[in-house]
Amino acid sequence: MAQTVQTTAPVSTEVLSHPTPLHEFWLAYRANKGALIALAYLVILVLAALLAPLIAPHSPSEQFRDFMLTPPSWMHEGHARFLLGTDELGRDILSRLMHGARLSLMIGLVSVIVSLIPGIALGLLAAFYPGWLGTAIMRLMDIMLALPSLLLAIAIVAVLGPGLVNTMLALSIVTLPSYVRLTRASAMAELSKDYVIAAKLSGAGKVRLMFNTVLPNCMAPLIVQATLGFSSAILDTAALGFLGLGVQPPLPEWGTMLAAARDYIERAWWVVTMPGVTILITVLALNLMGDGLRDALDPKLKRLA
């Protein structure tokens, strides 16, 4: 009797090694070289901000009276102690930029979180209750969007008074409508899908449908919007500081540094250029990272390496 020989087909390593969602996200993100460079810059900036008390050459408020308006170290008449030069009071610009990063990043992060959480809640309410409640929420957001964001922030700070906390509160209120509208649009697109209908038929309540079923599938555009909102918050913070309505001296906030240095732009260009370039590069990096997140999180735009 003939013996049957069983052969085992070779198992492809590609089948066994399914990439995890995090790995897929990283492959798609790193395909965007600009976003990768932006991420590296932001990691360095965050580390410099967190470690500023340890690695900054000098205290941000220490004044060197003998070195007022000293040029950067690579220029003629520069000094090796001050890599980026000093300001009109003899304070080290590099140290102030590093400590200022802590303020700018904190303001951006807090304002995004404070506006994102109520924005998600109001957007979900507007999507699940499209009657009078949803209409009232969206009309209020339309009124807020009818005003220029910076003008509205200036009005809020003028009423509450300048300062760190009031600046974060004003920026949170200004950016709230964008999160509400985006959450509502994303949630309404999900409500007609089969998995939501199945959850309704299984007896899921409104709260469970909102936060357990629909919200996780709306997070991708919200993450991208939060990244772009982070850059807008840093820019608006600098604008308020430049107008004297944001963080008050002697705190080393980037916009406040620009406002204090505008009288010296002709004879000490570095006093204005260094914080201005820092704001420019940081906002550009956040926008590039937002583009990379959009490409990596949107299935239609993924570019796998």
From TrEMBL:
<feature type="transmembrane region" description="Helical">
    <location>
        <begin position="103"/>
        <end position="129"/>
    </location>
</feature>
<protein>
    <submittedName>
        <fullName>ABC transporter permease</fullName>
    </submittedName>
</protein>
<dbReference type="InterPro" id="IPR025966">
    <property type="entry name" value="OppC_N"/>
</dbReference>
<feature type="transmembrane region" description="Helical">
    <location>
        <begin position="149"/>
        <end position="174"/>
    </location>
</feature>
<feature type="transmembrane region" description="Helical">
    <location>
        <begin position="35"/>
        <end position="56"/>
    </location>
</feature>
<keyword id="KW-0813">Transport</keyword>
<dbReference type="Pfam" id="PF00528">
    <property type="entry name" value="BPD_transp_1"/>
</dbReference>
<keyword id="KW-1133">Transmembrane helix</keyword>
<dbReference type="InterPro" id="IPR050366">
    <property type="entry name" value="BP-dependent_transpt_permease"/>
</dbReference>
<dbReference type="InterPro" id="IPR000515">
    <property type="entry name" value="MetI-like"/>
</dbReference>
<feature type="transmembrane region" description="Helical">
    <location>
        <begin position="218"/>
        <end position="247"/>
    </location>
</feature>
<keyword id="KW-1003">Cell membrane</keyword>
<feature type="transmembrane region" description="Helical">
    <location>
        <begin position="267"/>
        <end position="290"/>
    </location>
</feature>
<dbReference type="Pfam" id="PF12911">
    <property type="entry name" value="OppC_N"/>
</dbReference>
<dbReference type="InterPro" id="IPR035906">
    <property type="entry name" value="MetI-like_sf"/>
</dbReference>
<keyword id="KW-0472">Membrane</keyword>
<keyword id="KW-0812">Transmembrane</keyword>
<comment type="similarity">
    <text>Belongs to the binding-protein-dependent transport system permease family.</text>
</comment>
<feature type="domain" description="ABC transmembrane type-1">
    <location>
        <begin position="101"/>
        <end position="290"/>
    </location>
</feature>
